[in-house]
Design a protein that fits this description.
It is a single chain. Helix content is 39%, strand content 13%. The longest helix has 33 residues, at 378-410. By secondary structure, it is of the alpha+beta class. The radius of gyration is 26 Å and the shape is globular. The protein starts with 11 loop residues before the first strand and ends in an 18-residue tail after the last helix. Strands 4, 5, 7 and 8 form a 4-stranded antiparallel β-sheet that branches. Strands 2-1-3 form a 3-stranded antiparallel β-sheet. Strands 6-12-13 form a 3-stranded antiparallel β-sheet, sandwiched between helices. It folds into 2 domains: 12-376, no CATH class; 379-520, Topoisomerase I, Chain A, domain 4 (Orthogonal Bundle).
């Protein structure tokens, strides 16, 4: 029987600060974290999964009970190599991917389960219900995987496995990170990234408070029982290394490659409506309690920035990691520590098909540069919210403009009604085919795609501007990009032979209404139903 020690073998893909790309052993990644720019994997699921694994090891090898402990490690500028080596001396056997009785992140045998192709480890691979989300070259649809890649996908699977399908001891349920966005703070090095996300143990009390049984999965001598109503979380280490599936890798011992797998349900989270994840933003639902905010497939993650920064209230709460960053900023103001002036908030998430819950539609991993001073300025966060509110007003205006445009072309006699709808947003009897046809024009897609660059610029400079100048810069970008989006559509319609008069009349009405909106705002137009920026119904 061969072995494959994830402690001794290089398997984690990283980019060094000098740009070199390498694969490192687990202890090397930790001891060299200050020399590593970050984990570098083609799959964002793997990247997040490896971050969670490294965080669990950071907690296990360093005392991080309170802020004072955290400050000591931060000021050292690198992780304690001796502490990491000591941990490896007593725990290395638990990291054997092919151990006969305790294989890492797996179970030793699943005799009742049928064998699946190795592609079932790759949640984003094109097989079964899933479309191709990422280009993995030969990995995509391959019949076998090298052990290092299988280990990466195994770590991701435990955190992102999709619910749905018959299994034992109960049918498959979503893993902890499957639903809801996951926010990470990203620094200039992997050391900064890990430490900025390493909330001290006392800070986990509102989420998954530590208990005496809290331990990473590889250390557990008496694992918790899988319960359909949800297995209680024993603490941060238990949660970070959550085992949502029982997995057995099927290995060709002679060639040292994974040729298949067996997968069955293991743990699901308690359905108690409590917040559990420090990287998730939550909204309060009257029936379900706290519900993680999700991505929408037609909305880029940067459009949620203001939601992720707003302080918590009785209905909404930002990710705990953002509150932790805010607390760190306050500590810096007292002279306790020194932080980088800016970081990135990395927003990760997936969406699933509402008709096929086990089908992944898309994945996103986006970084938004963030000057940390914003976290101590509620006025700037409020200004950011106001800017996005105006941007949403313009989006609705563009949507109505597209509908009014096609309605005017299709039924010239109803042009007056179409223009009234464009201006007021009041519900009228639009021909039923018009909204879908207008959506196909791509007006709002063009608009939002063009707004990303100015948003990042305004966000970066917001702390150095007053509210009036920031809004003026933003309004100019809104005007230019909304007008350009309509102009492109009008040119295409003209080229297709559309009559000149309705195009001209609607264009003029669009411009006048746009100017009014940028000066006064719209709020909720009468009869114009919409959802909040995060996709939750409000």
């Amino acid at each position: 029987m061969i072995s494959y020690s994830l402690w001794a073998e290089p398997w984690i893909p990283v980019e060094m600060v000098d740009g070199a790309v390498a694969k490192k052993r687990l202890p090397e990644v930790l001891t060299s974290a200050h020399l590593i720019r970050g984990v570098l994997d083609p799959s964002p699921l793997v990247t997040v999964g490896l971050h969670r694994l490294l965080l669990a090891l950071l907690y296990r090898t360093h005392s991080l009970d309170a802020f004072g402990d955290w400050r000591t490690v931060w000021q050292a500028g690198q992780l304690d190599a001796r502490a990491i080596a000591r941990y490896g001396e007593r725990a290395e056997e638990r990291f054997d991917l092919l151990h006969p009785t305790r294989p890492f992140y797996q179970v030793s045998s699943l005799p009742e389960e049928k064998e699946h192709p190795v592609a079932d480890l790759l949640l984003e691979a094109a097989h079964g219900n899933n479309p191709t989300l990422f280009d993995h070259g030969q990995v995509e649809g391959a019949r076998e995987l090298p052990l290092d890649r299988a280990a990466c996908y195994l770590v991701a699977l435990q955190l992102f496995a999709i619910g749905g399908g018959v299994s034992k001891p109960f049918n498959r349920m979503d893993a902890p990170l499957t639903k809801g966005i996951v926010v990470e703070a990203t620094g200039a090095t992997l050391f900064e990234t890990l430490m900025l996300n390493a909330i001290p143990m006392e800070g986990w009390d509102p989420l998954a408070p530590p208990t005496r049984l809290d331990a990473p999965s590889w250390e557990e001598e008496a694992p918790a029982a899988p319960l359909k109503e949800g297995t209680p979380i024993r603490g941060p280490l238990h949660y970070l290394t959550w085992q949502s599936r029982r997995v057995q890798l099927l290995v060709d011992q002679g060639r040292g490659v994974v040729t298949g797998c067996k997968i069955a349900q293991r743990y699901c989270l308690p359905k108690d409506g409590h917040r559990v994840d420090p990287g998730k933003a939550y909204a309060r639902d009257d029936q379900q309690g706290w519900v993680a905010r999700r991505l929408q497939k037609d909305r880029a993650a940067w459009r949620m920035t203001h939601v992720l920064l707003q302080p918590a209230d009785e209905k909404d709460t930002r990710p705990e990691v953002v509150s932790w960053l805010s607390a760190l900023r306050n500590r810096e103001g007292m002279g306790d520590i020194r932080l980088p002036p800016a970081i990135s908030l990395t927003v990760n998430g997936l969406t699933t098909d509402p008709k096929l819950a086990a089908k992944i539609e898309l994945w996103r991993r986006e970084e938004v540069g963030l000057p940390l001073v914003i976290l101590e300025r509620p006025d700037l966060i409020a200004e950011l919210e106001r800017m996005m509110s105006v941007a949403s007003d313009i989006e609705r205006h563009l949507r109505r403009t597209g509908e009014a445009l096609l309605w005017s072309i299709a039924e010239r006699a109803h042009q007056r009604n179409a223009l009234q709808y464009l201006w007021t947003g009041k519900k009228v009897k639009i021909p039923p085919a018009i909204p879908a046809m207008a959506q196909s024009l791509g007006l709002t897609l063009r608009y939002w795609a063009a707004m990303e660059r100015p948003f990042r610029s305004v966000l970066w400079n917001l702390s150095e501007q007053n509210g009036a100048s920031a809004m003026a810069e933003w309004s100019q970008a809104l005007r230019q990009n909304a007008t350009a989006a309509l102009a492109a559509v009008l040119e295409a319609l003209k080229a297709g032979g559309a009559p000149w008069e309705p195009l001209s009349v609607v264009e003029d009405a669009f411009g006048r209404r746009l100017a009014w909106l940028l000066e006064h705002g719209e709020g909720d137009a009468e009869g114009d139903e919409h959802t909040g920026e995060d996709g939750a119904n409000h």
